[in-house]
Amino acid sequence: MSVREPRVTLYSRPGCHLCDDARAVIEAVCAELGEAYAEVSIAGDPDLEQRFGEEIPVTFVDGRQHDFWRVDPVRLRRALAPTR
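Below the sequence we write its predicted structure tokens.
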């Protein structure tokens, strides 16, 4: 069994209620589709703090920025759908 790299990355910070909401949507959609996700805290990382600042949470899919502040489950499912 091979381990696949997560297609979804959530950049967050501790104590962020929008991050909690985004995480719940990402967890549900990824579980439904059999995808993995990774979460990266920007807290204490000056480069990430400067890059994302107040746009947290920020969601990336396949290495490209997908959303910030809120995650739309329909849009996330569409981004993770297999290409035909």
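The first helix runs from residue 17 to 33.
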